[in-house]
Structures are given as structure tokens and as C-alpha cells.
Amino acid sequence: MGTNPVPTPPDFDLHSDSERGLEAASIPVRATRAAPFEAVQRFLSRYGLIIVLLALPLAFMASDLAHGHGFSHILENLKDGLSNGAIWALVAIGYTLVYGIIELINFAHGDVFMIGSFVSFGMWGTLGVTLGTGTLGRVGGLIVAGAIAMIACGSLNVMIERVAYRPLRHAPKLAPLITAVGFSFILQNVGLEWLGGSQHGVDDLVDAQHILLNIGGVHIINADVLAIGITIPLVLLLVAFVQNSRLGKAMRATAQDPEAARLMGINVDHTISLTFLLGGLMAGAAGLIYALYNTTIRFDQGFEAGLIAFTAAVMGGIGNLQGAVLGGVIIGCIQQISDDRINSTWTPAIVFAYLILIMVFRPQGLLGEETREAG
Amino acid sequence: MRGRRFAVSSTLVAGLAVFVAACGGGSSGSSTGSTASGKTLTIYSSLPLQGASRTNSEALVNGIKLALNQAGGKAGQFTINYKSLDDSTAQTGKWDPGQTSSDARQAAQDKSTIAYIGEFNSGASAISIPILNRAGIAQISPANTAVGLTSNAAGASPGEPEKYYPTGKRNYVRVVPKDTIQGAAVATVMKSDGCKKPYILNDKEVYGQGLATNTSDSLKTAGIPPLGNDGWDAKAANYRSVASKLAGKGVDCVFLSGIVDNNGVQLTKDIAAGIPNAKIYAPDGFCESGWVSPKEGGVPTSLDSKLQCTVATLDPGSYPPAGKQFFQQYESKYGKGNLNPYAIYGYAAMSLALDAIKRAGSNGNNRQDVINALFSTKNLPSVLGTYSIDKNGDTSITDYGLYAVKNGQIVFSRVIKPNAG
Fold first, then answer.
1. CB-based contact A347 B236, cutoff 8 Å
2. Where are the alpha helices (DSSP H) in B159-239?
3. Is A121 helix (H, G, I), strand (E, B) or coil?
4. Which of A172, A204, A334, B133 has the fewest CB atoms within 10 Å of its CB?
5. Residue A326 near residue A316 (C-beta atoms within 8 A)
6. Following DSSP, what letter does each residue of A168-211 receive, concatenated?
7. How far apart are CA B314 and CA A107, in angstroms?
8. B300: closest CA of chain A, how far (Å)
9. Contacts 24+ apart (CB under 8 A), B147-150
10. Over the range A260-269, which residues count as b (16 or more CB within 10 Å of their CB) and which as e?
11. Alpha-carbon distance B255 to B212, whole Å?
12. Using CB atoms, which residue from B89, B266, B294 is nearest to A199?
């Protein structure tokens, strides 16, 4: 679990001063030749990641300034990235929680998120929340719909764990991976039966694209407030829960060493179920936000979202909560900058190119730590 | 010795594999025999019966059935059996390459097949044409408009249309005008609406990309060159940054060149919100209830006034007497208020197939003779008006209909007579 990262060990220097001196004395020419290369290598290993992350926004910011457009355009891109990324972050948390505790890539998680959107949409239909409903009614209806979507997705995730993953806890790793793919297809077909194969426009209950504020040319729309306003408290609550509560400590202990945790009296099965519950709750909330934010839902939305969110979790350092959020926001920003400045056709390629570069510079991800598997 | 034996057996296995693969490769055109057996012939249709295009496809099927019914189920001396296939899947919610291929193979392997009506989507026809071409079966599309399916004119991709006709002979015709005409129609409308800075977005499919090129060329000719022609990612969650980019360029008109199934509802909403004063134009790939009807998951009615689309169909009053009569008969059979503009193209496609079989006379069961009859269609009176089929398989009809959106419904606005050059 990433809430309490293992302190990074100081850079170990395998050569003592005398050894280094000896080497320098015996092979002086090689040492001089290597020096500039090593300096570049040191510079890249220290700042390469920062350069990679800032390259795109800085390049476009410079271009904006050169054309006399100021900072508003790039800030607008980053703002859009932040709010889009908030949704990916909530989904990514589910991937990272599950991977952190049982080292399983829960391929069904994206589809649990899709069910969250569908339940939300169904619930506000059941509650009679429409465009004609007053503000109070809408807010109340959406809170109830959101709560039910979260509970539904949480319970669904727990059920999936109980049925498809727990019996395979000691099976080869490929087995639960395949059952995860299987559940992903089952949920997609549930969605297909539910609303059909076409995209389904839903009522714009929050007037998503209404400009609420204009801060120096950066337009804050209702959807931005909704996405960030729900995501931040949820993430803070989750982090506080995992860091401070007894159950959270049990989760961290189980993530570190399940056998030792069991010996210490922790009910590992319940702890794993709790992890799935928390991931599902976040996916349910993300499903509600997605439906309100985009006002179009589709039975296969979870596939693409799941892929992006999983990438965010890996980018941030799988197993690390803050990393998942950071990864989600970074991907959101890359997507928006690419859509706006380059071409939406290239966006998926650019996102994954970024992932590759980040992995090259920091294989454990931005805020990653060593997992049990990695050693 | 063991090594030699291994080498020999490997060669034999490899040779066998190549042989089996070669047999399999040829199976798509299994009944290449040019004569369909017996006096009962089969005409297949392959259309997307699921997803946003379902309503249009059902209307096409109804039109096809009505034409066959009115002909007494006969064409010349032959009895005609009709089979409707679905080229879409529930999973994709639109035409699917695997399903399209399967439909074409089913028709190719049926010895009684004499003609194939389809596909609805140009991208799908790009898959079925080569299969049916190998089998020597006549194909008539009631809705394809992509230029590259029939000619290498502007809008076609490199290698088109030759790559669709592996035998070197043509077998595909269509009863709707190609996108050179639609592109010109869109440009005509944009110019008359006062567009100054148009922009084109395409869905990167065969149809969307080709039409985007045609429209871009026509806009240049009309003196309002587009500021850009970009692809959109059909899998994206939203297109707010795309809209923001266009808004930043001062775009006043946007043409969505593609099909609505490729996340067109989300794209339309985001463009409308990001560029509030922009007029949004779309082609026949969008012009369906799944785009504009909130009941079917389309855009909200508040956007109606911004939207217009072009389709090769006109309103009943704009057709010749035979067309008007068709609409009356269609409504009396399928109910009033159930009229979809595509129905007439289903009727026209089946009528053309029946007419070609009839014109082939006693050789009406000979596939190649029926194809020849199709390509020799000259001044054929029909519900669409009198038309001919040229050597590429294109119709001589050029009229396009402009449609507006009112209360979540697509309503006919006017006939466009484009100058496609």
C-alpha cells in the first residue's frame, strides 16, 4: 500500500574513496572519457523524469508566449486535464488498491466503473430526477443516486473477489487473471443488455459545461467543480482511512506480508474483501461523475477507462494511492494537451509514449515502491 | 540421419500447411460457378439491424420486402427468395467487420444466390465486395456513398477501387449518389448559410475520411477552404479540448464526417457547448434518430437549431409520381408516421436487382449475366426518378436532401442540387 512508503534507501556507493582513487589512478584516460558521459547520465537520472513530464506543457507554453497568447491557454488545458484526470484517478485507485494487496490486475474493475454509471443513471430515473427537477431535488437525488451507485459497485467488487479470485488465491497467477477477464466480459454483457449497444445520452443534470467562473481566461465549468469537488474529499477520506484506522493498518500489513499479517491475528480474507469494497466504492463514485461530466454513457466505456486508469496506476507507481491520483491527473493533462494542441487521433499514442518514458526513467512509477513481487 | 528425417518431415508438414491454407484462402468464393442452381433464386440483404442505424436498416428491409411483394416474388421466370442478414453485433452496436465478412461468405456459399443488397456502411462494403467479387455475385448498395468503392476520384485512398475487385471485373453498383456529390452538397449548404471558417472532423473510417476529403475539396472550390480536417478518436471520453481548439481558431461551422456510432453524440454535444455559435453539419452517417432523439440516447433537443444533415433521400413530395405512390403504399403497409426516408432506397435496390434478373431473360440465374444487366442499366424509370448506372457502378442521380432537426426529429428542409463538377 502506498500510504506509508518505504523510505528510499540512500544511493549506495559500492566503491570506497580509496577504491575510487585507485581506479582513477590506474586508468586515468578512461576515467576522463567517462566523466562527461557519467555527468550526463547523472543529470538525466536526476532530472530526466521532470524534463519528460514538463516537456509538453512547457513547449506549448513557450509557443503561446511567443505568439502573445499568455498563459491562459495552457492553464485551461491543465485545468481540463485535472478535472478529466480526477475521474481516471478514482478508477485507478481501485486498480492500485487491489494490486497492492493481492498483486492482481483486476481487469473487471473498468467494467465495475461502467456499472456505476449505469446504476447512477438508472437511479436518477427511478427517483424521478430530470431536467425539470428543482436544484434541491437534483442535488438530493444525485447524492442518493451516487450513494447507491457506490454501494452497488462496492458490493459487486466484493462479490467478484469472493466468487472469482478468492478460490484461486493459491492458484498460478494466470488463473485469477483469466477469471478477471471473464468477469469483465460478463459485466460488459450486463451493460449491453441494460442499455443496448449504442451510446446513450443522459440528461445534463448539472449543466456540465456552464461556465461558473472565469479566472484570467481560464473557464471553470460546473463539470470541473463536480469532478474535483467529489474526488478530493473521497481521496482524502480514503488515505486517512488507510493510514489511521485499524482496518487500514490491517490492509497495509496484509499488503506487506499476508502470512505475517495472518500470524498477527489479522483476518486476511476480510481485509482483502474490504480492499475490494473500497475500490468498488471509488469506481461507483467515478461512474456517477463520468455520467454527469460527459452526459453520454456506453456499455463498453469501462474498457477504455480501465485501460487509461490502469496506465495511471502504473505511471504513478502501482500499489501507491497518491501515485494513482498523480498518474490519473498526468494522463488527464496529456490527453487534453494532445487533443487541443496536436490531434485527438494521436492522443492514445502520446499517452502511452509518456508511460514508456516514465517507466524508462523510473521503472517503479512516479511514487512507486517495491512490491512483494518486485522484491 | 535423424536430422535429415526431421528436415523431410518438416518440409512435408510445411507443404501440407501451405496446401491447407491455400484451400482455405479460396473458400470465400466457393461457388464461383456462374449459374445459380434451380428456378428459385435468393437475394440476400446485409444491413446493421442493431445500434443507432437500426431504424434506417429496418426501413430498408421493409422497402426491399415491399418491392419483392409487389413483384409477386418473381423476376422474369424465376422465383425470388429473400433473406435478411445483420452485419452488426450487439457488442459493437454498429456494423462489425467479422459479421460483415460472415454475411458475405454465407451468400457466397449459397448456390442459389443471385444478388446481395448491402452494405449500409461503406466501411462494411469494403469488406464484403471482395468476397462477393470472387464469388461473382452482383452487389447493390442502398446507402454507400464512399467514392473509393467505385472510382479513384478525389476522396479515394491509394489502391482504391482496384483492391476491392480481385477478379478485375466489377460486380458492385449503388443507387445513392457518391460522396463527391454529398461533399459538394455540404459545401453548397455551408456557403449559403454564410460559413466563413469551416472545420472538418472525420472518424477515420473509409467513409468518413473519404467524405472529408471530398467536402474539403468542394469547400475550397466554393471559396471557403476549411481551417482543418482532423480525425476524432471514437473511444475518447469527451471532446472538450477538441472543441476548445476549434473555438480558439474562430471556427463558425463544423462538419462531422463519419457515422454517429463512432461516439457522434458525445462529439456533437461537446462541439455545441465549446463553440456555442457554431453551426454543425453532418452527413447521412449521422442523419438518424439515434443522433437527435433524446429517447434513443441522442443529443438534447436544446441543440436542435444548430444541427443540419444531408442525405440522398428527399421528402415524399420531391419525388416523381412513382416515388409518391411508393410512399403511399409503404404507409398503408407499415403504418402512417412510420415513414423513414431510407425505405425508398431499399425498394429501389430490390427493384433494380429484380429488373436486372428480368433483363437477363432465361439467363436470369446466371450471375455474370445479371451483373452485366446491372451495368447496362440505362434510363431506368424508378421510384427515385429515371437513372442510369455508369461503368463504375455509380448512379446518375445527384439530388441530395438537406434535413434540419426539430423536437428531436429529423425533418426535411430542402433539396440541394450540388455542382460536383
1. yes
2. 179-192, 206-221
3. helix
4. A172
5. yes
6. GTTS-THHHHHHHHHHHHHHHHHHHHHH-SS-EE---TT-TT-E
7. 48
8. 8
9. B147/B178, B147/B179, B147/B180, B147/B210, B147/B214, B148/B206, B148/B210, B149/B122, B149/B125, B149/B174, B149/B178, B149/B206, B150/B174, B150/B178, B150/B392, B150/B393, B150/B394
10. ebeeeebebe
11. 8
12. B266
Cell triple for B298: 441522442
Helix B343-359 / helix B54-70 crossing angle, nearest 10 deg: 40
Helix/strand/coil for A219: strand
Round to whole Å and give the CA distance between B146 and B371.
21
- Is the ipTM, as predicted for this complex, more than 0.95? no
Provide the whole-model pTM: 0.78
CB of B38 closer than 8 Å to CB of B370: no
Nearest CA to B279 among B302, B305, B260? B305
Contact B245 A199 (CB under 8 A): no
Taking only residues 94 to 133 of chain A, the set having a beta carbon closer than 8 angstroms to any beta carbon of chain B reads none
Q: Which residues contact B17 (CB under 8 A, 6 or more apart)?
A: none
* The three cell numbers locating residue B100: 460483415
Rounded to the nearest 10 degrees, the angle between the axes of helix A301-316 and helix A72-102 is 90
pLDDT in tens, A12-70: 343 444 333 333 334 444 545 566 778 887 777 777 778 888 888 898 889 888 887 78
| B53: nearest CA partner in chain A | A198
Cell numbers for A247: 482496518
